[in-house]
Amino acid sequence: MNLRQEYPNYFLDIYGQVDFVPVRGVGSRLYDNNDQEVIDFAGGIAVNALGHAHPQMIAALTNQAQKLWHVSNIMVNQPAVELGKALVNASDFDKVFICNSGTEAVEAGLKLARRYSLVNFGAHKHKIVSFKNSFHGRTLFAVSAGGQSKYSADFAPLPEGIVHGEFNDLSSAEELIDENTAVVIVEVIQAEGGIIQASTEFLLKLRELCDKHQAILMFDEVQTGIGRTGKLFAYQHYLIQPDLISIAKALGGGFPIGAILVKEKFSSGFTIGSHGTTFGGNPLACAVALSVFYIINTSEVLSGVTQREQVFREQLDKLNQEFDLFAEIRGQGLLIGAALKPQYHGRAREIMNLGFAHGVALLNASPNVIRFTPSLIIPEEDIILGMNHFKTALHKFSKNVAA
Ligand SMILES: Cc1ncc(COP(=O)(O)O)c(C=O)c1O
Questions:
Q1: How much distance in Å is there from the Cα of 106 to the middle of ligand 1?
Q2: Structure confidence at residue 1 (pLDDT)
Q3: Which candidate, 323, 331, 332, 296, places its Cα nearest to that of 390?
Q4: Among 16, 40, 83, 161, which is least packed by CB within 10 angstroms?
Q5: Domains and CATH numbers, the chain
Q6: pTM score, two decimals?
Q7: Does any ligand 1 atom lie closer than 6 A to the CB of residue 146?
């Protein structure tokens, strides 16, 4: 059976997958049925933070699987309580809500903010300020909050009361954030949008304007959170604190889970019955996430992210000296973007496919940027090997360009 060929017979055609079909993974290496090896620089889109088949994650999952899988939120369970406690203790927040994905975390954050503002200030204070080129997930509310109309336009009519300012533009933020604003949602690094970092001045300005207008400042850390940038949360690189963050992806290391963390002051935004989920806080997901959290939240792993970033940057600079394809290498920690020069715009996906064909799993971030989101503990040897494969892919790309 050719799985890649079978797939479209049964599935809605919404992804455009690569040809490589992995059947197992070990650390930062994936293997197909024929034992063909691919070095994994994609990490399941910033999810497999500890690579594949990490022994402690396997132990956490299998131990929990012997005990209790699911009870729903009519009961509390031990892994959920331990995870909530660990997240609150390691952050500047006081309360947690656990759900199943990044989109759901965003949805929860925005709903909490709207309800908090409604209850405390009145229905007029419902405006959501977001930014162009941002990505916040795929529910109708999340695509409407996101700043890329290609994800939302076809699903109109969209939820009302959402406006989009210019990212990193202080005067645009000043113009939009006012006494009617309930929440300002922003990515510390616009990830899907092309690995574009928020400036310190911009985030400071957002903090100042939210304080002035009693609006909630929400950082969407779904992609940047849980060690990805070299700190547990990306906001910790700055001298400001948001009021609420959404996290997911690396939180479960491959098991679906998401969460919001919120300051005490705003936690009354949700009360009994105002929000909920059947699966959120599921013991299996929380047991795995807890094992991931304990490993990542150590100075060894977090400083290792920054060391690995340097190796990536050195290797990418070297490749660029040879091929002259990139205008810039950007990002932070192991969320790295190689931005293509203007003459190659639109061709990131082609390079991604060539990568897979030559033994390295890559991602794009927008049509113009190659994205690297590997395991946070990828061995240096695997980085070098993956870069050798990437070099072969770039060689082929350069030949295509010349042809
Ligand atoms: C910043 C950000 N928010 C939200 C999401 C949506 O997360 P999920 O795909 O888990 O629903 C993503 C996914 O890429 C993301 O990068």
A1: 8
A2: 76
A3: 323
A4: 16
A5: 3-53+299-402 (3.90.1150.10), 68-296 (3.40.640.10)
A6: 0.98
A7: no
